[in-house]
Amino acid sequence: MLIYGATIVIRKKFSASGYFTDCRKYNCTIAQYIGEMCRYILAVPPKSTDTDHNLKMIFGNGLRPQIWTEFTERFNIPKVAEFYGATEGNANIVNVDNTVGSIGFISRIIPSVYPISIIKVDPNTGEPIRDAKGLCMTCKPDEPGVFIGKIIPNNPSRAFLGYVDEEASKKKIVNDVFEHGDSAFLSGDILVADELGNLFFKDRTGDTFRWKGENVSTSEVEAVMSNLVGYKDVVVYGVEIRGQEGRAGMAAVLDPDEAVDLNKLVEGVKKTLPSYARPIFVRILRKIDLTGTYKLKKNDLQKDGFDPSKISDNIYYLDCGTGVYEKVTPEIYMKINDGSIRV
């Protein structure tokens, strides 16, 4: 921007209702977003001025595929340049051809042009799966895996300088990737590539959990649930149930007024999610914490589990008998844990 002398408009604080007002006021042609910003903007009631702007493109990171088309059509956005990358990483990608939901592209014909790849990992440990030669295995089209960027010696753009914490740095490097002695930056993010080479974000390795023998993408469930509750903040994670393998899905919904209709919610969940991905528990939050980049925090929520004696928020479970969400009481909590109530 500085090289070409472009004018930049910086707002002191993000405003969902004022986003396009600012674009009109300053005659912006390109706008930026990050994290959950687009969802917050979409949640603002429609106005006659929604398309009254001169934007040619928006760019950023975090526009979920589930609201991509709705957002671009409502606000008449010609192009979206969704990108992916980590500040400390050595590989960044960007969607340059407006493919809905894509975060970038990797050539299927000449993949070596850009030294990035998606490798197979163990869904439980996140460790790379290796072949008989001890090398990593690349994923097939539509097969989820971890995104990596090859580290090339003496090439600053392909270097990984690491963190201050040496142990943390080691965890981000995988060795013997495509040949013995080479190495790559391990992003920790699960991506999938289609047959054309378009890349799509699925989840983070620490967030995905298994339930009923299936891998559940928290990112995908969060997007579906948010759409069902009017674009409210939703955090999805897995919680342990005594005697059960894997983790049961919990959806924490920011709804301080408890306006969400749980009966309508369960109907929508059954229509839009496979049985293994449907949240077993719903927690109604009075408040929620965001990161500095407008992403939802979930670690503390996950530690809380579903014990009502330790949580002041109301928690509900999906009753297999009635097919609706019923309140979790201390007695219900004990019965779920001892197997008297099956989930």
Explained architecture:
The protein has 343 residues and is of the alpha+beta class. The chain folds into 3 domains: 1-78, Rossmann fold (3-Layer(aba) Sandwich), CATH 3.40.50.980; 101-203, Luciferase, domain 3 (Roll), CATH 2.30.38; 207-338, ANL, C-terminal domain (GMP Synthetase, Chain A, domain 3), CATH 3.30.300.30. Helix content is 19%, strand content 24%. The strands form 4 sheets. Strands 5, 6, 7, 8, 9 and 10 form a 6-stranded antiparallel β-sheet that branches. A 5-stranded mixed β-sheet has the order 13-14-15-16-17. Strand 3 (80-84) and strand 4 form a beta hairpin. The longest helix is centred in the middle third of the chain and has 11 residues, at 218-228. The protein is globular and about 60 Å long.
Describe how the helices and strands are arranged.
Layout: H1 19-25, E1 30-34, H2 37-42, E2 57-61, H3 65-74, E3 80-84, E4 93-94, E5 104-105, E6 116-119, E7 145-151, H4 166-171, E8 173-175, E9 183-193, E10 198-204, E11 209-211, E12 214-216, H5 218-228, E13 234-239, E14 248-254, H6 262-272, E15 281-285, H7 299-304, E16 314-318, E17 325-327, H8 330-338
Parallel strand pairs: 1-2, 2-3, 14-15
Antiparallel strand pairs: 3-4, 5-10, 6-7, 7-9, 8-9, 9-10, 11-12, 13-14, 15-16, 16-17
